[in-house]
């Protein structure tokens, strides 16, 4: 009993936990556990920076989407594959005409053009080149079928070249060079270039270049047509088609670039920010 009483007295000397005080602060009030919620830890610096930059990146993406790049002339024509597709019916016509005669050549060219159009539509490619190719082959083949002459398959293209040469030269004569008119209309730059004589001169050079290309096509192909050289006529149509037109467009691009620089220098066209 004495030992138990001694142990009980020893524990009585210990302070009640509720009566413990914060001696370091000088207060005589019992310590209490804080009921305030813990402050959330700040996110790591890289994550915080990424979160802060998110609206800016979204804005830049929206601006980029708003300023979507316009398709080029080559893209509107169906790209490089579209150019190859446009020459395939001509090759089929010439080869089939040499092997099996006119009727088989007409069927082969039209069937190939139609097959290419269906394939392009199935791939959800541009509709205009697909249907335009079928229409062009149908008209050329129809004329050749009507006249009974294989060389008449190229007749429309020959006279279209002469018409192009005349129209382009006439536009230079009336001081409305078609190279400048078509280029600036397609790019949405208006007619500010016409207010500058030097810019008109640049586009005159480009327009005359295109006129020479059309005139050369007419001269060569008309000679082959008159001498009944159907195979050579088909080769000339391909070789003097897009390759020569591409060279002419390089001259147009030079004229446009040189004119733009001059117009910005003169204050007739605002410079890009």
Question: How would you describe this structure to a colleague?
Answer:
With 273 residues, this protein is mostly helical. Among the domains are: 76-148; 154-268, no CATH class. 71% of the residues lie in helices and 0% in strands. It contains eleven helices and no strands. It has helices spanning 2-12, 45-66, 73-76, 79-100, 102-122, 127-147, 155-173, 178-186, 197-226, 230-239, 242-266. The longest helix has 30 residues, at 197-226.
Tell me briefly what this model is.
The protein is mainly alpha-helical and 273 residues long. Helix content is 71%, strand content 0%.
Question: Helices and strands in order, then pairings?
Answer:
Elements: H1 2-12, H2 45-66, H3 73-76, H4 79-100, H5 102-122, H6 127-147, H7 155-173, H8 178-186, H9 197-226, H10 230-239, H11 242-266
Helix pairs in contact: 4-5, 4-6, 4-10, 5-6, 7-9, 9-10, 9-11
Contiguous low-pLDDT stretches (5 residues minimum) are 1-15, 17-33, 45-67
Which structural class matches the secondary elements? mainly alpha
Distance between the termini: 100 Å
User: How much β-strand is present in the residues?
Assistant: under 5%
Shape field: elongated
Major sheet, described briefly? Answer: none
Question: What average pLDDT do the residues reach?
Answer: 78
Number of helices: 11
What is the number of E strands? 0
**Rg estimate, integer Å:** 40 Å
Helical fraction: over 70%
> Helix-strand pattern, N to C?
HHHHHHHHHHH
Could you name the key traits of this structure?
disordered N terminus; 11 helices
């Amino acid at each position: 009993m004495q030992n138990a009483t001694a142990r009980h007295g020893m524990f009585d000397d210990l302070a009640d936990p509720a009566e413990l005080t914060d001696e370091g602060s000088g207060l005589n009030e019992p310590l209490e556990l804080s009921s305030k919620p813990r402050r959330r830890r700040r996110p790591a610096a890289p994550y915080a920076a990424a979160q802060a930059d998110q609206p800016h990146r979204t804005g830049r993406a929206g601006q980029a989407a708003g300023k979507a790049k316009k398709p080029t002339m080559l893209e509107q024509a169906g790209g490089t594959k579209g150019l190859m597709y446009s020459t395939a019916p001509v090759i089929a016509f010439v080869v089939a005409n040499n092997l099996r005669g006119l009727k088989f050549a007409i069927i082969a060219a039209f069937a190939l053009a139609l097959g290419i159009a269906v394939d392009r539509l199935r791939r959800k490619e541009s509709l205009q080149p697909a249907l335009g190719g079928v229409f062009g082959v149908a008209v050329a083949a129809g004329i050749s079928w009507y006249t009974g002459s294989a060389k008449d398959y190229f007749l429309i293209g020959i006279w279209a070249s002469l018409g192009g040469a005349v129209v382009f030269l006439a536009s230079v004569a009336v001081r409305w060079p078609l190279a400048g008119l078509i280029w600036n209309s397609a790019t949405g730059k208006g007619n500010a270039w016409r207010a500058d004589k030097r810019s008109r001169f640049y586009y005159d050079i480009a327009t005359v270049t295109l006129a020479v290309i059309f005139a050369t096509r007419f001269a060569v192909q008309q000679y082959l047509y008159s001498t009944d050289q159907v195979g050579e006529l088909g080769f000339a149509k391909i070789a003097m088609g897009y390759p020569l037109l591409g060279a002419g467009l390089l001259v147009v691009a030079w004229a446009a670039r040189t004119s733009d620089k001059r117009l910005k220098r003169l204050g007739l066209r605002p410079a890009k920010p």
